[in-house]
Amino acid sequence: MHKLNFKSNKTLRSLAKETLKANTFKIAYGKETTNQKGFWLVKDEGIYLMQSYLKKPSSANKVVYASGYNPKYDKHNDLWERTYEVSRDDFAENIPLEEEALMRIASGGNLIINLGEDIFEVIA
Length: 124
Prior knowledge:
globular, four-stranded antiparallel β-sheet, alpha+beta, DNA Polymerase III, Chain A, domain 2
């Protein structure tokens, strides 16, 4: 099992606050939308959360990397191997979150995602 820890910081708190205000969210890899609040969990060069809400074209993406998975700061030679252990393929997945969880994150709480072959657990 892989434990992805997203520690509270200004960007994560802002992402949660803006998600709470939003009403329409994009479904990953499609044109469909939903009213289910949440984030996208993305794996490419690193592993991070980002907004899934529809945004104004002028607003910047909000990205929060999991601890140890930020290619800018985690210059370990094994970053590619560690992300590959989580998934062999790049992906974006919708992570639905209840308003209470988003409020905890907006107030300074961390977000933990446990991933395994048969496990997908979100703790906020």
